[in-house]
Amino acid sequence: MAQVATANQGVWSGGKSPFKVEYGKLMMWYFLMSDAFTFGAFLISYGTIRFSTNSWPDPNHVFRSFPIIGEMHIPLAFVSIMTFILIMSSVTMVLAVGAGHEMNRKEVLKWLGWTIVGGIAFLSCQAWEWTHLYHEGAWWGHNPFLNIDGTQASTNFTNFFFTITGFHGFHVLSGVVINIIMFIMTWRGVFDRRGHYLMIEKAGLYWHFVDLVWVFVFTCFYLF
């Protein structure tokens, strides 16, 4: 019995910091876990409808446009660039967090700035894609694209696409705003006065989550 009590004290470390994780970081993990359930519900709903339908629009046909150039024979070229931008922004966020651990404010500002640029670039690409699809007649309740077998498609494709990519885009926008706030706080020396850059690490957790979710969104909508 005494051994169990000792083990519990070691895990909870006095009950103030479960598993010796900083409180704010633990709450961020809780938030991300609950958000993952929301995204999971959306994607499971999409998958259920998608694979219970005999035919579906071909993503290679729907997503083959490119800014200025127009229609391209290379499928998914534009969304591949979008994905690359978002993944690279995750790399720069890792570098910003690493610089924070070293208390290097100059490097944090540099890499956090590039992360913000990447997020804005991704949102700009998504805005162009949405605008292009809208001009083609695609929107909630409207689907101009035929199924891969030539039959008329339902609006499930566009309804799910705009809902899920819009929900993800809102998360990216929120992440950009958070990173801008972190950038300003870093620039003003707030974290140097605190003696740590834990807030950058928490913002990094959120940003990596957003990037990870995009991998699943990309797989569901653009590859199948």
TrEMBL record:
Membrane topology: Multi-pass membrane protein
InterPro entries per UniProt: Cyt_c/ubiquinol_Oxase_su3, Cyt_c_oxidase-like_su3, Cyt_c_oxidase_su3-like_sf, Cyt_c_oxidase_su3_a-hlx
Record's keyword annotation contains Cell membrane: yes
Source species, domain of life: Bacteria
Record GO biological process: aerobic electron transport chain
Main location: membrane
CC per GO annotation: plasma membrane
Keywords assigned by UniProt, alphabetized: Cell membrane, Membrane, Transmembrane, Transmembrane helix
Keyword Zinc: no
Sample GO molecular function, one term: cytochrome-c oxidase activity
Domain Heme-copper oxidase subunit III family profile: 1-224
Bilayer-crossing regions: 26-49, 74-99, 111-130, 160-184, 205-223
Cellular compartments annotated: Cell membrane
Entry-linked PROSITE patterns: COX3
One Pfam match: COX3
Family named by the database record: Belongs to the cytochrome c oxidase subunit 3 family.
Name of this protein: Cytochrome oxidase subunit III
Organism: Niastella yeongjuensis
